[in-house]
Amino acid sequence: MALSDGNENDMIQGRTFKFPKDSIVAFDKGYVHYQWFGDPTNQGVTSDQIIQLNSAHAIERGAPKLRRVVFLDKESGKRYVFLTNNFSLCAATIAAIYKDWLQVELFFKAIKQNLKIKAFVGLSKNAILTQVWIAMITYLLVAFARHCEKAGWPVQRILRVIQLNLFERRGLLEILQPDPPRYKKCEPQMRLAL
Predict the structure, then answer these.
(1) Strands 65-72 and 79-84, bridge-based pairing
(2) Most buried by CB count within 10 Å: which residue of 50, 91, 93, 187?
(3) The whole model's pTM is what?
């Protein structure tokens, strides 16, 4: 994970990563950088083509030949178009990689929705990054606890339950799997006879 002050494009951070040979990197169209494409160089598949981008912008920057894979998701009915510089994998594998990438995007969307940092404890870059990292670690630990317990609760509910029990001396298992309440059947204290 790379964090920045939010004033720079993700592409700046993305290009700093060093990927091992034969790595597979999935990203969205916000990472279009034709020269960079050259560096890291079925079912549902409706098209598999080799293309050359021919806009003046692409030609000026030396855009390489790319592979265009079109995939139709039968569950949602949505059509996806993927560009890749990988010519050795089958088209269905390329589509599966991007489908998995979409799950990562949904994960980050869930993090943004659940980790509401309302105020920063400090205003220095270090203080803000520390607070963001702590929130991220907390979310991942709660997600892991949810996975291990198979509680079926959404992460947001688990976070709320933990917040309510923050100052209680109880284990996580007790919080996530409380004993059913034991109510005694008792007589009403007062009866009114008419």
Answers:
(1) antiparallel
(2) 91
(3) 0.46
